[in-house]
Amino acid sequence: MELTLDLTTYAIATGLIFVIAVMFSMLGLGGGMLYVPVFKWLGMPLKTIAIPLGLLLNGITTLSAFLRYNREGLVDFRGGLPAAAAGLILAPVGAHLVQYVHRETLILLFAVTVTIAGLRTLVQSGKGEPKQMAGKGKRAIVGSLVGGAAGFIAGLLGVGGGFIVAPMLMELGYPTKQAAATTAFIVTFSSFSGFLAHMAEGHIDTLLAVLTVMAVIAGSQLGAWFMANKARPGWVKGFYGVLLLAVAIKLFLGLLGG
Question: Of 3, 95, 118, 160, which sits 20 to 30 A from 168 (CA to CA)?
């Protein structure tokens, strides 16, 4: 299936994706939670284009941010590897199951997920930085469980799963910047794994993919640099939480409006 998009749609999509990549990479997140709604609102099929392309961009955003964070020495590879492996394995399971779920159900699940993530982030934004990190064993066990769940949801909804991983790392005692960096590392695996699983049936507008990939690379590098060197973690988390709740409201209103 080929979509015919006009130049204005390409320009709007590329600009929005760039802004989203800047903001989400600050927390090590891929942006799939907004990429997918953007493509849906631009009239693209949810299951065959919005979710697969959202996962691709999600993975590129987190990979680009992860490389920047790694240069800053902020990534905890040992603590993040179990979660990354679990997400890598379970993301294709979620991607396979998406064909059996109705479109409206997917949007409802998406809206509920975004609401939970937004509320959780706002709660976290009022807390100070943790003083002590959990032990290696606890980080490995909790990371595997949460990383697997995040990977499954990533494949099903195209959101990457970072909104689950980042709060989990903060609960385990990671400072905000290290949590963002390690989240980027973990989510990269589940995003690309879910994308490859979707591509067996998905269709992507080539020009749109090229333009938005360029946008997320530039945006994620800028966002990761800003977070590592300039940003105030509490402000970033608060803004992110408010934005997610606004998206959730928009999704719920869309469902109510048919």
Answer: 95
pTM for this model (two decimals): 0.74
**What's the pLDDT tens digit per position in 182-199?**
988 998 998 888 888 877
Task: Establish how many alpha carbons lie within 13 A of residue 45's alpha carbon, considering only the half-sphere containing its beta carbon.
Answer: 15
Query: Helix, strand or coil for residue 102?
Result: coil
In the block, residue with structure tokens 């975004």: 114
Burial class (CB in 10 A: 0-12, 13-18, 19+), 164: buried
List of residues 6+ apart from 122 with CB closer than 8 A: 237, 238, 241, 242, 245
| DSSP alpha helix (H) spans, the chain | 7-25, 32-41, 51-71, 77-97, 103-125, 136-157, 162-171, 176-198, 206-229, 233-256
From residue 119, how far is each of 26, 157, 185 by CA, in Å?
A: 18, 19, 24
Q: Which amino acid is at 223?
A: G
Residue 168 token pair: 């989990």
* Dist CA 117 CA 163 (whole Å): 6
